[in-house]
Amino acid sequence: MSAPANPAATANPYESDRFLAEYLLFHFGKDHEVLPWESGPRDALGFVRRTARAAQAASPKGGRALDVGCAVGGATFALADHFDEVTGIDFSSSFIQAANQLLTGKGIDYPRIEEGSVTTTLRVDPPAIRNPKGIHFQQGDATNLSRNLGPFDCVHAANLICRLPEPMRFLDQAPSLIKPGGSLVLATPCTWLEEYTPRNKWLGGYSENGKPVATLDRLKAILEPNFDLETRCDEPFLIREHARKYQWSVSLLTTWRRKAGH
Prior knowledge:
- This protein is an alpha/beta fold.
- Helix content is about 25%, strand content about 30%.
- It is built from seven helices and eleven strands.
């Protein structure tokens, strides 16, 4: 959920205090803290928990999981309820610092914007963790992961690939990261923007020979030599900007199974 921006663009926005607070609310905020409006899209709440559940459903209990683009660690902590060992990696040092602070049992106070410069202070309490020693957070680049990381029983990457400067470099690493029979859970709103990904690196959202290219079709072409597509669904999510403005989006969530012998 956080990734390196296009090097040609401005400094990584995910290092700002504003984005840190926004993602703490997105990952850990209570439903009424995120959306007090009864008429709002309540089915879009809890996105982080829903993608983690998809990863849990795709894997037997125990084993190792990798959460790439983990942001402030909401999905990483949720995955730790199912897996014995979970590693969360994000490009943002401030996100990883916040996740480690929660892991060590320290809460975090952060501002929620109400209107203009008016804020309300909210608090994230350390989550209850089944096995704290099994969780590890580290700063890293999703397009250049260490070869010593894997293999994993499951790799979870939510709202990541359309924020990478070279998403193919991440997907090319997937077979070496995942055990045969293991799972890859991808979620993406397919929001291809040049401020994050150069146009010639997009995996969808462009035309080729007069025909539109969809992200799902490209994912199939890239992954099917090594993976079988098992599930596909649409998962809405909601990011609160201030009391009266929200980003409502729908992520394409796919689950892939690593083929034996590939």
